[in-house]
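Translate sequence into structure tokens.
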Amino acid sequence: MKFFLDTADLDEIKEAASWGALAGVTTNPTLYSRIGGKLDDFHNHIARICEIVDGPVSAESVAMTRDEIIRDGRELAKIAPNVVVKIPTMVEGLAACRALSDEGIRVNMTLCFTVPQAILAARAGARYISPFVGRFDDISEDGLSQLGDVVTAIGNYDYTENTVGGEQVEIIAASIRSANHVTQSALMGADIATVPFGVLKKMVQHPLTDRGLESFLKDWEKVANA
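Result follows.
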């Protein structure tokens, strides 16, 4: 499994990149607004992220019609070679995904919740499909089960003839709220988990690790003072 960081915070991205496990970044309008982002600086901000991260950087279009999304996508793709255009899973988004993919622009179809949505996105040429886990949990439904169904369904077929460069469609487990979400997503075979920085930190932590380290340091202190 690969890990993307779900953030627009440059400091978080730099720190996560220093750990050596960061494969990409996903952003969205909410994440950009949280850091006080300005409309006229959005493209520059995405460029700064692309300077830190070699892997895919998803930048989302907020347009609602296919022509506007296509226009947005073309402009976003010009920012850097590793920009992936993020498009909501809806009729206009599918049409825009097909057009952009035909132009060689990679697309991440977001706000995906069902197997039919995921299959349509794959047929439309999406390079990445982002089923949301946590938002199902928010309405007391099983987001992990839905993710598992998407992973299985997409894995049943070969969509390489639909994607840019004949690359395989990858499933991004999104709206991740806990380290257990990551564990279950990995066991289901999701290709990528995109996680908030707080979850990424929790993935490293375990009380037995802390207890073992404390014990080692105490024993080493005995050696040093012998």
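Note: The CA atoms of residues 75 and 175 lie 26 Å apart.
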